[in-house]
Specification:
alpha/beta; Aspartate Aminotransferase, domain 1; Aspartate Aminotransferase, domain 2; 5-stranded mixed beta sheet; 3-stranded antiparallel beta sheet; binds ligand F0G
Length: 457
């Protein structure tokens, strides 16, 4: 059969509230033209994030009832620890309430003034945690990953030559660790090849630098490797994931993605001394090392989710349904990062609205219009999220202006996505009417969450 169906039946549903275009125009204005500030009940299809938005399975919900809420040594912790060790092969597993808590702990210990941390592309919270510690976050994405319209299998790969040059110039003593983010969220949800992970690992070994994976979407990345990298077609996704982690010394994980839960995360590592320091900080900021800011029930749900995410029928459906949205957008002429990524489709806002310069936020303009036209919530990943100011106060834009349509796991059906496609096409066909935006408020850090805007007439 050609049709790849959702590999689940729906047992529990949540109603969607419908709003009119006139209502949404007012709602967005009241929210300062920032979709983050719109109440979720006024969103029809929410593609803001794939993080913490998964539908849990019946088995995860029964795990919730079964959670052991003991303060220390809970049975749920050991089930969680076993599940994480099976995939990562790492020795020390530290639960945190979400991914950024793992980052905060890690970089409070490893970061600091004068230090630099390279990555293929840092996610915004990783960058913020590194910079908050006083260190510098450096992106070393390969050249092809920066070209939205070029199709390649592994556009998330790190530029290994740039990494060597960076290490030589910066000095190993100033680099606490090297990271790779799988899949590369900020670079379009593009996968990283096993070859690249292995090469970066070898470089790190040569220079005696710890190598960490930002593993939020490790299963989606492993499935891409199975599909696209020769030698992996007959391996199980679990085996591929195990090999990916085997090259790393540690990992940060937001379980809100590929562990199919609404909250959770962890740090995993092999270095005993570092783990001890992390646990000490965990106790101050998150909780006792066997729950780390989570309830026992959450640890059960993570353990179960980590089993379900490696189901290859699920992954086939997951990657295929993201591609379905992307391929139909391409057919409609909408410029996106090609090929479609794992968890999201990224609109190339510079190509979509070339009349709006980066400092007037073309991505924000598209995100606002998708909301007004169809109640579809997306997020700008461009000058609003990553723009900086130079000494003269001019906006320094990142290389790409994107709008992300992230697909929650196991939540929307094909007809929801067909509706999104209709809305996208409507906005695209009227793209010359899109206006630029300017800030009316911006916070000093992670400004995209709380910024307010007004359209420029
Ligand atoms: N690393 C990556 C690659 C991420 O995508 C995220 C979160 C984090 C770390 C932080 O994890 O949210 O659990 O603290 N990404 C979400 C997103 C927010 O929408 O892409 P967290």
């Amino acid at each position: 059969m050609k049709t790849i169906i959702e590999p689940f039946r729906i047992k529990s549903v949540e109603p969607i509230k419908f709003t009119s275009k006139e209502e949404r125009t007012e709602i967005l204005k009241d929210a300062g033209y920032n979709p983050f500030l719109v109440s979720a009940e006024n969103v029809i299809i929410d593609l803001l994030t794939d993080s913490g938005t998964s539908a849990m399975s019946a088995k995860q919900w029964s795990g919730i009832m079964d959670g052991d809420e003991s303060y220390a040594g809970s049975k749920s912790f050991f089930r969680f620890e076993t599940a994480v060790k099976k995939i990562t092969g790492m020795e020390f597993i530290i639960p945190t309430h979400q991914g950024r808590a793992a980052e905060k702990i890690l970089f409070s210990i490893c970061g600091g003034e004068g230090k630099s941390v390279p990555n293929n592309t840092h996610f915004d919270t990783t960058r913020a945690n590194i910079e908050f510690s006083g260190a510098t976050a450096v992106d070393l994405l390969n050249a092809i990953g920066k070209q939205p319209s070029v199709r390649a299998d592994f556009k998330g790969d790190m530029d290994v030559e740039a990494l060597v040059k960076f290490i030589e110039e910066t000095g190993v003593e100033n680099i606490p660790l090297v990271m790779i983010t799988v899949t590369n969220n900020s670079g379009g949800g593009q996968p990283v090849s096993m070859k690249n992970i292995r090469e970066v690992s070898n470089i790190c070994k040569k220079y005696k630098l710890p190598f960490f994976l930002d593993a939020c979407r490790f299963a989606e990345n492993a499935y891409f490797i199975k599909q696209r990298e020769s030698g992996y077609e007959n391996k199980s996704v679990l085996e591929i994931a195990q090999e990916m982690f085997s090259y790393a010394d540690g990992a940060t994980m937001s379980a809100k993605k590929d562990a199919l839960v609404n909250i959770g995360g962890f740090l995993a590592m092999n270095d005993d001394a570092l783990a001890q320091k992390c646990r000490n900080l965990l106790i101050v900021t998150e909780g006792f090392p066997t729950y780390g800011g989570l309830a026992g029930r959450d640890l059960e749900a993570v353990a179960q989710g980590l089993e379900e995410i490696l189901d290859e029928n699920y992954l086939q459906y997951r990657i295929r349904s993201t591609a379905y949205l992307g391929e139909n957008m391409i057919k409609a002429g909408i410029p996106i990062i090609e090929p479609p990524g794992g968890h999201a489709i990224y609109i190339d806002a510079k190509a979509f609205a070339p009349h709006i310069p980066p400092h007037q936020f073309p991505g924000q303009s598209i995100a606002c219009e998708l909301y007004i036209q169809g109640g579809v919530r997306s997020v700008e990943i461009g000058s609003v999220m990553f723009g900086k100011y130079d000494k003269e106060g001019n906006v320094v834009s990142p290389p790409m202006e994107l709008v992300r349509l992230a697909i929650p796991r196991r939540v929307y059906t094909q007809s929801h996505i067909d509706y999104v496609l209709e809305v996208l096409t409507e906005v695209f066909n009227n793209r010359e009417k899109l206006k630029g935006y300017e800030f009316t408020y911006e916070a000093p850090m992670l400004r995209h969450f709380t910024a307010k805007f007004k359209p420029i007439d």
